Amino acid sequence: MAITKENMSINGHNKTFGNSERITYEKKLTIERHRSWRSGYSKLSAIIFDLRSKGFKDGDEILYDDVEDAIWELCGIDDRTVKKYIGVLVKRAFLKPCGRPIKKRSHVTVKTFSRVDASPRLNPKEYVSDKGHSAYRFGVRAPHLYVEQMLLPPSLPLPPNVIRERVE
Q: Rounded mean pLDDT of the chain?
């Protein structure tokens, strides 16, 4: 049986073979979202939008754990990934550190051999690396949520041309 366009369908994705034919997908929105997600700027903005959607505003202290959770949800849970994205967020002025530096300490036992009698010895080592800061604030380049920009502060009255409807 020859493979044709009519009999080739896998999980709702229609695929064809050959260099001149393109692979077509039914879910184009997912692919477009995936392509836009590849840029680093969109990931940084998504981290800031996630923090803002949790209720943090300009001037609020954001604890390291909250920033770490936002990065875990969007980019991955590896310690190196968290350190990388926090560094980039600070470097690009999306966040600014306002707390004390946090160090990560790793205790490792290294096995070495003596030069005299070639017997193994266990030497404890401690490695220290920068993890981040205890708290952050939004920087000057941190994007805002559209809904947050549209809300009026509670101290200001509504303009007179706004029609107030009774909600029942």
A: 76
